[in-house]
Write a structure and sequence with these properties.
By secondary structure, this protein is an all-alpha fold. The protein is built from 7 helices and no strands. The chain has a single domain, classed as Orthogonal Bundle (434 Repressor (Amino-terminal Domain)), CATH 1.10.260.40. This is Helix-turn-helix domain-containing protein.
């Protein structure tokens, strides 16, 4: 019996492969660290046993510069190949990426306080 979210997992793995994300055994930990989720959650995303909530899928699509519709549903254009010129989303600067990584490492209550403070 196939995993319930196997199609999503295949698209996620394809995205990670095409963008040069960590390969092999370290991929699960790297994905978990980047999105501040448990290793078990990241493993389930990669094996098709779970699918992220929509807000997280949007974040993945933006971070990896791919089509949200394609990542979420498999419909629409495939993700762009590395080195192609047309971007689906603007790529984050190095500073923005570091800030986002730091934000993801915060516990959820502190994230909410920070968002409230900045609003």
């Amino acid at each position: 019996m196939a995993a319930p979210y196997e199609d999503f997992a295949n698209r996620l793995r394809k995205t990670l492969d095409r963008t040069g994300f960590v390969q092999g055994r370290g991929r699960t930990s790297a994905l978990a660290d980047r999105y501040a989720v448990s290793r078990e959650t990241a493993r389930k995303w990669l094996t098709g046993l779970a699918q992220p909530e929509l807000s997280r899928i949007i974040e993945l699509a933006k971070d990896f510069d791919i089509s949200l519709e394609w990542l979420a549903t498999g419909r629409g254009p495939m993700p762009l190949g590395v080195g192609e010129t047309r971007a689906v989303y603007r790529r984050l600067t190095e500073g923005e990426s570091r800030l986002l990584d730091a934000f993801h490492k915060l516990p959820e209550p502190k994230r909410q306080l920070l968002v409230k403070f900045l609003s």
